[in-house]
Amino acid sequence: MSNTPKIGDTDLAELLARAGRRIRVGIVGGGTDSVIGGIHMLTHRVDGLAELVAGAMSIDEAVALSSAEAQLISPERRYTDWRRMLEAERIREDGIDAVIIATPPQVHAEPAIAFLEAGIHVFCEKPLASNVEEAERLREAADASSALLALNHCYSGYPMVREAKALIEQGKLGAITLVEGEYGVGVGALLREPEGDAPKHWHFRPGPMGKAVVLGEIGSHLHHLAEFVVGDRVRDVRAELQTIAPRREVFDNAYLSIGFEGGAVGRLWSSYVAAGQEHGLRLRVYGSEASLAWSQETPEELRILYPDNGAQIITRGSANVTAAARDATRIPPGHPEGYVLAFANLYREFFAALLARLTGDSAAARVDGWLPTAEDGVQTLRLIRAAEQSNGEDTRVALSSV
Ligand SMILES: NC(=O)c1ccc[n+]([C@@H]2O[C@H](COP(=O)([O-])OP(=O)(O)OC[C@H]3O[C@@H](n4cnc5c(N)ncnc54)[C@H](O)[C@@H]3O)[C@@H](O)[C@H]2O)c1
After folding, report:
1. Whole domain around residue 184: which residue ranges?
2. Ligand 1 binding pocket includes 183 (Cβ within 6 Å)
3. 3 state DSSP class of 235
4. CB of 275 closer than 6 angstroms to any ligand 1 atom
5. What total of structural domains would you count in the chain?
6. What is the pTM of this model?
7. Tens digits of per-residue pLDDT, 5-64?
């Protein structure tokens, strides 16, 4: 940690000075009618590397315009359709460098592909798309484009999650054997389906993802977190998907028994009906020599458990953390950082990569390494399809077969 924001050896203030300007950003979705838009408004600004200059911020025209106005976007760059935004911005001399896609999953692939094809970088909300085919088309577009795509699995931005990944890479746990992940929430409208015929949020309607929206919404984070920390891909799954809340039309609870390419086995539990749990994202990883445990509600701590030497608690910002955790740390220990800064870490790496490209600095390759990719997103859509197939056929399903 230092007073000068850095990623690895890259001094971000110096990088910004060399670029001579901030990254110009547009956003699709994320209006005042959305859940996640407000967090994007905070987090993309945290490091001052980017400025929001354009937006097609809602499906509702009035909300799109008022949301953009509230962000002080100039009137001619407040759009009511993302296609119009793309057409106009691509020919402006001061057009956007990057776009944030913060729409529901069925509105990710089409805009993301179009922006990538125009050479505009994409910061895409998870899950990457609403099905495997869309996700693969988007991955192909990202591979073919000179522009960068990052996927917003924001929990991978926590310093102590990166510490966990680094310690596993260093072999501190030995060979990985078991992975236990859970993301069980159960408050408000997640826990209980409302009475009456009021229109349901898309979280609770069957859609292009079928009935497994809980896996797209929260299971996708859990899957990415497990693969990110362990450094291995899930190979196959056996799933049980349930609908617990009365009157609910989609699955709201999912037990996934998984196998990893490298031989580890594990369980991923995703639920909207874990009554009273506010967030409930936790990961434990066991190896032949030791295990580790991390929880999103106490994110400053990573517990390492040794069979003969008890537990060690590593705290964010302490002197003994790895460079991976140190680089993701912004403020001294004892001053909790939390979700907003973890989320902002992904933005910082994304914008730093784009600034590095503007200046022709090869640091881009280094910062790219942390950002969740289109391939990560494709794997999640495969897991969801395989889980649905497994649930329907009562059999174990390889992700490569779907
Ligand atoms: N990273 C996280 O921690 C996190 C948390 C919550 C949601 N998300 C993800 O963010 C995305 C959005 O989720 P949400 O809960 O905010 O959804 P939401 O339905 O509350 O909001 C979606 C927004 O997109 C807009 N929109 C829809 N179609 C559009 C279109 N064609 N053009 C322009 N705008 C359009 C809506 O008007 C609204 O502003 C989802 O992919 C979700 O999974 C991520």
Report:
1. 159-332+378-401
2. no
3. strand
4. no
5. 2
6. 0.97
7. 667 677 889 999 999 999 999 999 999 999 999 999 999 999 999 999 999 999 999 999
